[in-house]
Every structure is written in C-alpha cells, then in structure tokens.
Known about the structure:
Elements: H1 2-23, E1 54-60, H2 72-86, E2 94-100, H3 111-118, H4 124-133, E3 137-141, H5 142-147, E4 160-162, H6 165-174, E5 178-181
Parallel strand pairs: 1-2, 1-5, 2-3, 3-4
Amino acid sequence: MKSIYSLVLCTLLIMLALDVSAQLSKPVANAIPEADGYVSIPNVAIPPDKKRTYRAIYDATRGAKDPSQLVPALNMAGSELNAFAATAVPMRNVKFAVVFHGAAINGILDDDHYKLKYGTSNPNLKVLSEMRKQGVEIFVCGQNLVADNIDPKVISSDVTVASDALIVLMAYQNDGYALMSF
C-alpha cells in the first residue's frame, strides 16, 4: 500500500513540475541578443518595476572560460538589459556602467589583437557597441593597461580609459549604484 501512495505522490509531483514548466515562456533577449535571455515568471516577489530607476556598476574582472563566449560581466549586464526590455521597463530607468580590469581586459581587445591572442573573433565587440548605444557607460582601468603593457589603441572604441578601476567603482557606488562583480 505504501508503494502505491509513493507512486501516486511521485506522479503528482511530476505532473506539477511539467505544468509549471509549461506555463513559463521561452527566454527573451531583445536588448542584447548575444546575452542570456529573460524568462517571465508569473506571480513572483519583486518583479521589475517600470517606475523604479535601476543603477548598477558591473565589476568585470573575469575572462570568459572559452574565447568564443562573452566575458561574464557583459553577459550578466546584457541579461539584465534583456530582463528590463522584456518587462517594458523604460531604458531611461536603467543606468548601468561596466569597468574592466584583470583578466576581463582581454575581452575588450579589438578584433585583430583578439584573433592574434585567441585565434577567433572577439564576441564581445558587438555587445559592447550595442550596450553603448543603450546608454551603458564602459570603462577600462588605465592602471591595468599600463601594468599589462596594453596600448589603449588596441581596445574597442566603445570603451573609455579611466584612471583606475577601483576609483570608478567607488565613485559609482558613492552615487548609489549597486555593485555587481563578475
């Protein structure tokens, strides 16, 4: 008898799981198609609010695991832009900045220098351009460029050289931006 109850319970749980997944939509990536998409989930706590202004500074320190993939910070910033676009939050209410230092700097190399280093095209360049068009401010640590002997002329023109990544991070956090580290 116990095994029948267990079987019925398992069947009900599987049916419930299938019903929930059937209700979920497919990921949407209208703002930054190369980044992870957003899935609308009904009846959630703290959904995106069209009246709120969202401020975040993305601390880009990690390089991609594979040179054909986006730098994690770009993927996450793009993913959140996709979330806001999917939920009709006006882009004027989204204030994002990204600052590159550490291994993530390789993700902002121009295509020629990226190909020379990795043997493939830089997947980040299109995303950098798209983000810039959407108002995202993008910086690279000048101190890191000097330390790594990288000529600023070989980085994406969508990236602005800043004096120091940590100063950028402090300034934006002092201005009320949430810190997102990737």
